[in-house]
UniProtKB/TrEMBL annotation:
Belongs to the 4-toluene sulfonate uptake permease (TSUP) (TC 2.A.102) family. It comes from Ellagibacter isourolithinifaciens. This is Probable membrane transporter protein. Keywords: Cell membrane, Membrane, Transmembrane, Transmembrane helix, Transport. It holds the Pfam family TauE. Its main location: membrane. It is a multi-pass membrane protein. The chain crosses the membrane at residues 42-64, 76-102, 122-150, 162-182, 188-206, 218-236. The keyword Cell membrane applies.
Length: 237
């Protein structure tokens, strides 16, 4: 029954991921942690994040903004390594609540705003660095990265394809780390095997839904998801 519950949560979360290019692991993580425990859940979702996001990136290869992908990857990786270290020395639950509150505020502000607000380049650079830091500490830096990506990529297909390529890279690194730490147990491998066909169906469904959404509605959906991500972080921290 618990595996069925996780499979259902995974399908919903990764359909959302396929539509928007982010938020899948954050929505799947609470159920995964309850069903399998934190380390096993992280191992499964990193492996599936690499597979599902990699699949989306390949299917939408022509829409990837390679310049922005390089900028985000290079901007995040050093701070991601720092965040992994800070994970061992800082009171993370308190920081996670603060992060969740910030994301809720940003989501509400953008939903209520009648026009998109553009941030200066120096602040965008800080946001990318912060996304890497938070990704390293909480494995959930995507919310900050979306703030940057929304301003830099106006086309929904480019936005989704580029973020998918980035998450494929980062999830591969995390999955590799989890493998070296011995987190890929028999149960984890079995769960990954169950999730692969679910991820394929979710990606196909997400592709269909994404094509039916206008650019304006896609942007609104992105801000709604930011708000929901913040709420999830506040509730589960």
């Amino acid at each position: 029954m618990e595996k069925v519950l996780f499979a259902a949560a995974f399908f919903v979360a990764y359909t959302i991921q396929a539509v928007t290019g982010f938020a899948g692991n954050i929505f799947a993580m609470p159920v995964g942690t309850h069903v399998m425990g934190l380390s096993s859940s992280v191992a499964v979702l990193n492996a599936m994040g690499f597979f599902a996001c990699g699949m989306l990136a390949v299917l939408n290869f022509k829409y990837i903004n390679w310049r922005e992908l390089a900028k985000m990857t290079c901007g995040m990786l050093p701070f991601l390594a720092l965040g992994i270290w800070l994970d061992t020395v800082l009171p993370l639950p308190v920081l996670l609540r603060i992060y969740g509150a910030i994301i809720v505020f940003i989501g509400i502000r953008n939903l209520l705003s009648k026009e998109q607000r553009f941030l200066p380049k120096w602040l965008l650079a800080i946001i990318v660095a912060a996304a890497g830091l938070i990704q390293g500490m909480f494995v959930s830096g995507g919310a900050f990265l979306v703030i940057y990506a929304v301003q830099k990529m106006k086309d929904k297909q480019q936005f989704r394809a580029t973020l998918s390529a980035l998450w494929a890279i980062l999830n591969f690194l995390y999955a590799l780390l989890a493998f070296t730490q011995g987190h890929f147990t028999g149960d984890v491998v079995l769960t990954v095997g169950i999730c692969i066909p679910i991820a394929i169906v979710a990606n196909i469904l997400g592709q269909v839904i994404q094509k039916r959404i206008s650019q304006e509605k896609f942007l609104k959906l992105t801000y709604v998801l930011l708000l929901l991500v913040g709420l999830v972080l506040l509730i589960t921290s």
